[in-house]
Amino acid sequence: xxxxxxxxxxxxxxxxxxxxxxxxxxxxxxxxxxxxxxxxxxxxxxxxxxxxxxxxxxxxxxxxxxxxxxxxxxxxxxxxxxxxxxxxxxxxxxxxxxxxxxxxxxxxxxxxxxxxxxxxxxxxxxxxxxxxxxxxxxxxxxxxxxxxxxxxxxxxxxxxxxxxxxxxxxxxxxxxxxxxxxxxxxxxxxxxxxxxxxxxxxxxxxxxxxxxxxxxxxxxxxxxxxxxxxxxxxxxxxxxxxxxxxxxxxxxxxxxxxxxxxxxxxxxxxxxxxxxxxxxxxxxxxxxxxxxxxxxxxxxxxxxxxxxxxxxxxxxxxxxxxxxxxxxxxxxxxxxxxxxxxxxxxxxxxxxxxxxxxxxxxxxxxxxxxxxxxxxxxxxxxxxxxxxxxxxxxxxxxxxxxxxxxxxxxxxxxxxxxxxxxxxxxxxxxxxxxxxxxxxxxxxxxxxxxxxxxxxxxxxxxxxxxxxxxxxxxxxxxxxxxxxxxxxxxxxxxxxxxxxxxxxxxxxxxxxxxxxxxxxxxxxxxxxxxxxxxxxxxxxxxx
Length: 543
Ligand code: OOB
Known about the structure:
The chain is α/β, with parallel strands linked by helices. Helices cover 33% and strands 25% of the residues.
């Protein structure tokens, strides 16, 4: 396995192969099979563009030749930052054809995240759009290159500016065949993070293909599936749960959009006869509200997946009320473990639980703070291992020592309880992460960035409840003696300047004389969370 990764123990790997989870197929081999079986079935739709499987494969082959011509080799990493456009998949599969490894950055990542991802992965190339949603990624790339000596090439899908065009000349003749070791890393996903900087999650061909295939089977995907990707396809949910890859695997079609708002999305559902989509809770609620006045024909929808953050039972009822019994709750993580409510699950299960583990070999433990199992039905910390859950983050030995138990369970940081039917209910979390409607913000990352402000002595970032997003971020700031703490506008400008992704900029900034501490002298985040909540309700009352 790629240097810097933790493989599964050999006896487990053998078991997962014998059980038929790991089938020894790489994503390049899978794409070839999909193309061979249905060359002219539509694979991807984007605006007025439609690519059948044969075209997708040809385009991927062109990208592979292009990158090979630039010297990109098997095992090398390439940071891929594209929105929901067909090029995301032509580059993804082009890299698979070379055996090179995509690092899936999110479209909203900025200099801080991209420089970190490039350095951590030792990426040799970075693929960007030209301008996306008003932001010029070519300018970002110019800054990134200066800070990342290993980065040899920037490729632009669109107008190249000062960089190289993605669509340029490549090598002709035979491509060196991609390595066919399916136990090798196929892609690196970015974790939501709990520490200072995002971590990379190695996903092998074997484990991720199983993730996709088993999800597609559970969700009833088939040749008539039309999947609307309205969340970023760089995120695990829309990529492989079952996502675009699941639709392709099942012989179906994926429709790509960057506009999840009901106006745009409903028009696509009607036009393309979309059968399934995946949303985060705030978007699902907007969709539900919009059915009351919209006139689009949504009768083709057979499954509406909602996940990424807590969906309250009353909101689940609204969504189910608006769309009928098509709602599915999904509790997943880029690290692996996926839980789904079954498409035929009783209403109570769909409204009140976040689903059941995907694989019979997902091992779950619910424990107290000393890693002792709690009694059945009690809330505790979720630990897990299994055939598609990582055994270690990439190049992160120190972090891995605490993020996993000695016997290889991943500490999810989520607080859950299990119902008698084996479904999980997510009750909260112990990890210091704010879940902003599905966008994950590591408190430590924002704190570290804010600490660079010259007037800031100390800082702590905590969640505040929010009706739409579930949570927003509140930063408490202690000014240096004699200095004035930055207010929200100044803090936002400062963090933007430092290149932090926009969704990580605190929604509120409050000044304190000192941070409260616990009996052992640690910052008392519980007290701060309570204070943030108080300030927010007070603010709302005054309005
Ligand atoms: C998905 O993946 P990530 O990596 O962005 O975030 C994982 C974390 C979980 O550990 C949990 O804290 C939270 O997001 N989460 C949920 C949830 N789904 C995810 N919390 C409550 N209820 C849910 N249904 O978010 C993700 C990956 C694949 C499929 C779906 C979501």
